[in-house]
Specification:
With 301 residues, the protein is an all-alpha fold. Helix 8 runs antiparallel to helix 9. The protein has a two-stranded antiparallel ribbon. A hairpin with a 2-residue loop joins strand 1 and strand 2. The chain has a single domain, classed as Farnesyl Diphosphate Synthase (Orthogonal Bundle), CATH 1.10.600. It has 14 helices and two strands; from the N terminus they run H-H-H-H-E-E-H-H-H-H-H-H-H-H-H-H.
Amino acid sequence: MPSATDFSALNELLSQLQQRSASLIQQKLPPVASSAAPRLTEAMHYAALAGGKRIRPILVYAGAMFCNAEITEADIPAVAIELVHTYSLIHDDLPAMDNDNLRRGKPTCHIAFDEATAILAGDTLHTLAFDLLASAGNYSAEQRVAMIQTLSQAAGVSGMAAGQMLDIQGEDLNANIAWLENMHYLKTGRLITAALELGAIAANANPEQRRALKVYGDNIGLAFQIRDDMLDIIGATEELGKTQGSDERHNKTTFPGLIGLGASESRAKQLCLEAQEALSDFGDNANTLQQLASYIIARTH
């Protein structure tokens, strides 16, 4: 597996896109000073601006770039998907869910504020995401409907929320690998693929481009989660930004737990190769996504 030192050019691009998305998120959040509920707005800012890898907005930008669009065309869906992702993290950390006290290297939202405020902050980030897709930026009505539908389906009862439910039910469950891959496809993979699809919609991609991005996204989404499962065992809390060993403490079913670290690494590599193969006919346009697939399974946090 390549080391992070192989990705200097990609890391520079990722840093630029992380900074761009963070700046835009800050611009699109409601200001605290004029808020009808300042404490709620403070919690929204706290969670949404806490840092993180920003993988999903980066994938929105990468999907648009793959389709020869300017990155400005992907700004609004990049912000929207990160707001939905942040809402999911707030709720995932709650006592009723994973009961975690550290996220992105900081106290989780319900620890920094309180449980009720954290729930409302997640709810409000969620609604803001769809408000932006409906009204912000320069998109046609058809693009707006397609982006709203793509993100809502990926986050809802046939996507992330369903995967979270299965994850809860899977604690202490003697699950098999097929069940685990389906759970992670729903919980993590659907939103990752949606990020690429949002970029493609913003870029007015053709059907061939969209099909290739979906295959690519489905593969890197699962590879991403396998690497996360591995890092929960081999990563350091300081680098991960969340408490190491959380999965084991919650008796969660994970890839290393089912098939071991070595087989998990092999499966992630296989998925990476399948993702890259899906883009093999697109030449230089696919370079960033090809490198990103390798980066996802080599990352240390």
